[in-house]
Structures are given as C-alpha cells and as structure tokens.
Amino acid sequence: MASSINIGVFNLGNAVAAWLAGATITTSLGLTSAGLVGGLMTSLGLVLAIVAVVLRRKAQGTQATISVVEHQPAQ
C-alpha cells in the first residue's frame, strides 16, 4: 500500500512539474523557464523533506537538528 502511494505521489509531482513548465514556456519567459520550474520544484521537495525530518525527530523527543559527521583519517 505504501509503495503504491509513493509511486502515485511521484507521478503526481511529475505531472504538476510538467504542466507548470509547459505553462511557463508559453509565457514570455521561454524555454529557460522550464529549468527554473524544475529548480523550484526540487527546492520545494527538499524543504518538505527537511520539515518531515524535523517533525519526526520532534515527535520522537530527540533533538531536532541535523548534524554533519566529519571523516577522521586513519593513522
């Protein structure tokens, strides 16, 4: 069930992005607007993913920060 929902939402996002890109191409922005729409849709997806991670960590009671692990070279 979760897999089918995941695929359905992916297809919906793909269709919305294609429609938005097509709509902006017909404006005075031209073909370069398709790349802008792609960048905006990707940024929106990244923001939603970060919000989901923060909310999940908050619900679990863990610290809601994202940390970066540094690689320590072997000696």
In a few lines, what is going on in this structure?
By secondary structure, the protein is an all-alpha fold. The chain has one domain (2-60). The chain has helices at 2-25, 32-60.
Could you please describe the fold and organization of this structure?
The protein is an all-alpha fold. It has one domain. Helices cover about 70% and strands about 0% of the residues. It has 2 helices and no strands. It has helices spanning about 1-25, 30-60. Helix 1 packs antiparallel against helix 2. The longest helix has 29 residues, at about 30-60.
Record keyword descriptors for this entry.
single chain; 75 residues; mainly alpha; 71% helix; 0% strand; extended
Count of alpha/pi helices? 2
Tell me the helix content: over 70%
Give the overall average pLDDT.
Answer: 83
**How many domains?**
1
Keywords: Membrane, Transmembrane, Transmembrane helix
Transmembrane segments: 12-31, 37-55
Protein name: Arabinose efflux permease
Architecture blueprint of SSEs:
Elements: H1 2-25, H2 32-60
